Amino acid sequence: MKARNALLPALAAGALMFAGASFAQDSTGQTPPPQDSMQQAPAPTQSAAPAQAPSADVTVRSVPPAAPQVSPPPPFSQLSGGKKWITEEQAASYPPLANDFLNASHHGTRVSKAQYEAWVKQVQ
After folding, report:
1. SS3 for 112?
2. What is d(CA 57, CA 82) in angstroms, rounded to the nearest whole number?
3. SS in 3 state form for 24-51?
4. What is the pLDDT of residue 121?
5. Is there a domain that residue 91 lies in?
6. How far apart are CA 45 and CA 65, in angstroms?
7. How far is the C-alpha of 79 from the C-alpha of 89, rounded, in Å?
8. Does any domain span residue 93?
9. CA distance 112 to 80
10. Would 1 be classed as within a structural domain?
């Protein structure tokens, strides 16, 4: 007899023992009482008043926060420091321009006076 043929009965016996042990763990040892088709289960008893949770009125009001008040845009000469351009560092002194710098500069590195005036018209 070959070695693998001798191993097969041992594996089958081990599998059956394992299956039996797992079934034994699942059972509780109690068998349900036989159901008689003629008998009916007793109706559950009802209390005088069903339990109810106390009702609470809840009012939820949600409003968006108020828009921040922004000061009017300063003159070009104030932001540029007397130069022909406003750099990104200079735009930081006026937060709305700093936030919209790429749009105002048309994806450039500085804003000219004409670009600044066009941006001011767009914002207002």
Report:
1. strand
2. 63
3. HHHCCCCCCCCCCCCCCCCCCCCCCCCC
4. 93
5. yes
6. 55
7. 10
8. yes
9. 9
10. no
Pick the closest to residue 108 from 79, 84, 87 (CA basis).
87
**What are the residue ranges of helices labelled H in 27-112?**
76-80, 88-91, 95-99, 101-104
pTM of the model: 0.47
Domain that holds residue 109: 76-123
**What digits encode the pLDDT tens for the residues 86-106?**
999 999 999 999 999 999 999
Q: Is the dihedral of CA 103, 84, 120, 98 positive or negative?
A: positive
**Helices H / strands E in the chain, number of each:** 6, 2
Burial class of residue 16 in the structure, from the number of CB atoms within 10 Å of its CB (0-12 exposed, 13-18 middle, 19+ buried):
exposed
Structure tokens belonging to residue 54: 């106390």
Number of domains in the chain: 1
Residues forming beta bridges with residue 86, ordered by sequence position: 111
Rounded to the nearest integer, the mean pLDDT of the chain is 80
Structure tokens at 9: 């009965």
H-helix or E-strand spanning residue 87? strand 85-87
Query: Please, are residues 92 and 98 in contact by the beta-carbon 8 Å criterion?
Result: yes
